[in-house]
Amino acid sequence: MKITTCTVSILTVTLLMSSVAMAAERPSVSNNAARITALDAEVTTIKSDIATIELTPGPKGDKGDIGLTGDAGANGIDGSLGAPGTNGADGAQGVQGEVGPQGEVGPEGNTQYFTNQINDLTTLVIQLKARLINQDFDQDGYSPAELDCNDADNTIYPTALEVLEDGIDNDCDGVDGDFIDLDDDGYDSNALLTVDIDCDDSNPNINPGMNEIVGDGIDNDCNKSTTDNGEIEYKIGDTGPAGGIIFFLQEDIEHGMEVAPVDSSAGTTWGCGTTNLPSARGTNVGDGYQNTLNINHGCEGSGRAALIASEFQYNGTTDWYLPSRDELFHIQAAYRILQRETEFVGEYWSSSHVGCTTFGFTTCYAATWIVEPPQGTSTSTKTTQTHKVRAVRHF
After folding, report:
1. 169-183, 299-313, 371-385: lowest mean pLDDT where?
2. What is the Cα–Cα distance from 306 to 270, expressed in whole angstroms?
3. Count of CB atoms within 10 A of residue 138's CB?
4. What is the pLDDT of residues 234-290, one digit of tens each?
5. Which carries the bigger pLDDT value, residue 197 or residue 297?
6. Which of 28, 51, 72, 130 has its CA 20 to 30 A from that of 162?
7. What's the rounded Cα separation, in Å, for the pair 236 and 221?
8. SS3 letters for 224-262?
9. H/E stretch holding 117
10. Distance (Å, rounded) from C-alpha 7 to C-alpha 388?
């Protein structure tokens, strides 16, 4: 049974009214008790009926007005920080601005530190060079500082015997010393080996052993002292104006150089201590005079070789000086021509200064000429050693 909500309300009112009427009719107490029991049973039945009633919703009422807005709720807790976004693309480069005015020049910096560093580095390099130049790598007894011209070959050093026709400067004197005779006339055309040179090694009829033919315009005997017109001037080995021995002649054969016939000193040091003399390093013929002047000007004290030579006097002449390295070579050659080699033997000082090296201490060197007939070699010797002095002069 389907009963609407309205039906239930009517049944309830009816029931109540029936109960009231029944109460009003109360005939007696025993009747009332019976009525009450009957009423309770009826109520129970009604309740059972009500429980089985299927309620059907009534029609939907009209929509009511919107209620008032409630108060705002409290703020919620902040959410977690989101991940960073990607960088946007770079914008285009703006236009370059104008160059600003130049600032004032700052105060000058302190360069002393860098100067000291450069000086220290320079000193280190000099010491390293000195160490290398004083090393005898091929163990032949001579280092580059001692004029070893090939410190990788122990058969080449300043006092080695020159081997002819080997194409090697065995004794480090600057020349090979090979005997060259292209025209097979028995005379050498290597001017540095001997004074008796063949002046035309393509013609066997021109050599020092030929007689000069007057008027033919040819130097038949390779001797500039015998002119083609028959006149004879100075020649190598002649006695010079001061009584010395002529060992070198210029082209005009009227001027040249002579060597004193005796030593100026049997043994002295080169001198000058640790003074480096770049102005006295000439080695050629003609350099001895200027070398001697520069040595005596740059050094102090007595007993040095250059001073002894410049103070030498012979036959009233006082213009003598210490010969250069190459001048000593020609002196020996002149004595060889005269076959008087025993008059010029030993170790002689030249005026040619080699230089100084510094490695803990300073050592200076000068060129000497060692004469052991028939050989003569140049070497570099410490200036503190003792050697002979032979003076020369030019005329």
Report:
1. 169-183
2. 7
3. 17
4. 788 888 889 999 999 887 666 899 999 999 999 999 989 888 899 999 999 999 999
5. 297
6. 130
7. 13
8. CCECCCCCECCCCCCECCCCCEEEEECCCCCCEEEECCC
9. helix 112-133
10. 165
Tokens representing 204 are 């066997």
Q: What is the Cα–Cα distance from 210 to 35, expressed in whole angstroms? A: 197
Domain boundaries, given as residue ranges, for the chain: 5-52, 233-395
Angle of helix 5-24 relative to helix 29-52, nearest 10 degrees, comes to: 180
pLDDT digits (tens, 9 = 90+) for 38-55: 888 888 888 877 777 665
CB contact set of 186 (below 8 Å; sequence gap of 6+): 207, 209
Q: Are 369 and 348 in contact (CB under 8 A)?
A: yes
CA distance 51 to 8: 11
Name the nearest CA neighbour of 292 among 270, 313, 273. Answer: 270
pLDDT value of position 194: 45
Global confidence as pTM: 0.46
Length of the chain (residues):
395
Q: What is the rounded distance in angstroms from the CA atom of residue 242 to the CA atom of residue 316?
A: 8
Distance of CA 331 to CAs 207, 220, 336, 343, 391, Å? 22, 25, 9, 11, 11
Residue 278 three-state SS: helix
The correct answer on CATH 3.30.70 for the domain covering 233-395 is no
Helices (H), 216-369: 288-298, 305-310, 325-337
